[in-house]
Amino acid sequence: MCTVREVRLKMENSLVLLLIVLTVPGSFQASPKIKPTKDVIKDLKNKTEVVPASSLPIVNVTPVPEKLAEVHIDQHKTIRISKGDLDDLLDVYMGKIAESAATIKDKENEINKLQTKEHTDDDLLKRFENLTEICNVQNSTYAAKLTEKDEKIKELEQKVKIYETRLKRKQHVLTELRKQNISSTALIDHLKAKVVYFEGKFREKKDDLLADWEAATTSCIPFGMSPGIHLIHLPGFLPFLVPCEGLPSAGPGWMVIQRRLDGSVNFYRNWDQYSKGFGKLNGEFFIGLEKLHRMTNSQPHELYISFRRFNGEMSYAHYDDFVIGSEEEGYELKLLGHYQGNSSDALRTHDKMKFSTFDRDNDEFTHMNCAEYHHGAWWYDFCSRSNLNGKYFKSEVDNVQGIFWEPWYSFRSLKSVQMLIRPKSQRELKDLPITKRTPRAILKRNSPSAQQINSHYL
Ligand SMILES: [Ca+2]
Question: Which UniProt keyword terms apply here (predicted)?
Fold first, then answer.
């Protein structure tokens, strides 16, 4: 370590060297202008590389006398500088220069490293910028996708709400259906019980029908006074069902062939339907002309007709013969027999007449279709004194279209009517009221003339 005195000495020596430099011509030449530090470093570098530090020509050393100079600092102090001092001083400064050169070298290395690092940083910065740009583009894309996803999510949320509403409705319906199911189960049990009941009834009816079939009856005679629907089997004809009845006023074994009760069945029908029959066997119906033809031609039959007026009055008409012709014969009323009853012989004028419907005019009235005029179907002549297939009226009216049975041409409508037949051999006339029979010749004689009828109808 240097003492304060030595440092002061060195400063003094440096001052002496400075004086030498200033006084010795050519030792150091001042630069015309000040160089930048960088240039100075460069110069030093060049000098360091070219020339060894120990031999740098910093000062033009020329041989000098032992005593070079004396410097008077003040009146009492003089500094004397010898050659040896300068050599020492030179050595010191050369050593410092060498140190500075080494330091400069280190700094240059550091600078090179820093420059290299700077290049690397530029590359990294560019890559970072590129990546940033890519990221920005991707961010924009992702932002658009996110917006799209958000919209889809909203849409899905709305759908979810709709489905939730529907689900609630379905659940409500399901709850209602479950309630209904409970009541339906009870109803089903009830219906099952009914099915069992009707199965029993059906078996009974089937047994009855089989019994009827086995009996192979051609009439209602076997059933006597018991009312019921039974199977009739005629030779060469398909079996068919008919209502059978026994009447207190007419005896047992009657077959119902026509019935009017309440107007529930339309009787204004065509030829084909009157040929086959129609209606309900337990209500209003007509058995059919073909069956009547077959039955009344298989064996002699009698006809019984009962009437009920709206005032409750009952009456009947009985004919001891009743034969209907074939379809080719127009289902003609071929044989009527004698009348017996407490109403009137209103079918007499229709004896030997063909049957007529609105689409088959077989009546005697040339310029009129009596079936249309009377809104019915009957064995019309000029046109009719009876019209049991006419239009049903709910109360008694005087109408040519109504259901009437009159001795003369008046048309008071009836409340109910029933036509029945029975094989003649089973007649039980003892049950019938005794009334005066009306021979056909007398009826013909008392029948109105065509002129009278025309004056009535026209
Ligand atoms: Ca006619």
Answer: Coiled coil, Disulfide bond, Signal
How far is ligand 1, taken at its centre, from the CA of residue 411, in Å?
A: 20
3-state DSSP assignment of residue 105 = helix
Measured in Å, residue 360 CA sits from the centre of ligand 1 at 9
Q: Is the pLDDT of residue 39 over 80?
A: no
pLDDT at 102 over 60: yes
- Taking domain 221-431, whether its CATH number is 3.90.215.10 is answered by yes
Ligand 1 center from residue 364 Cα (angstroms):
6
CB 168 within 8 A of CB 174: no
Domain boundaries, the chain: 127-215, 221-431
pLDDT at site 345 = 95
Helix (H) or strand (E) run with residue 453 in it: helix 450-457
Return residues with CB closer than 5 A to ligand 1 (ion). 361, 363, 365
277 C-alpha vs ligand 1 centroid, how far in Å? Answer: 23
Q: Tell me what the pLDDT averaged over the chain comes to.
A: 81
Distance of CA 413 from the midpoint of ligand 1 (Å): 23
pLDDT of residue 376: 97
Q: Which residue has the higher pLDDT, 445 or 352?
A: 352
Per residue in 142-176, pLDDT (tens digit) is 999 999 999 999 999 999 999 999 999 999 999 99
Enter the pTM of the model.
Answer: 0.52
Residue 308 vs residues 17, 344, 378, 381, 385: alpha-carbon distances, Å: 173, 13, 20, 25, 17
Ligand 1 mean position, distance from CA 356 (Å): 9
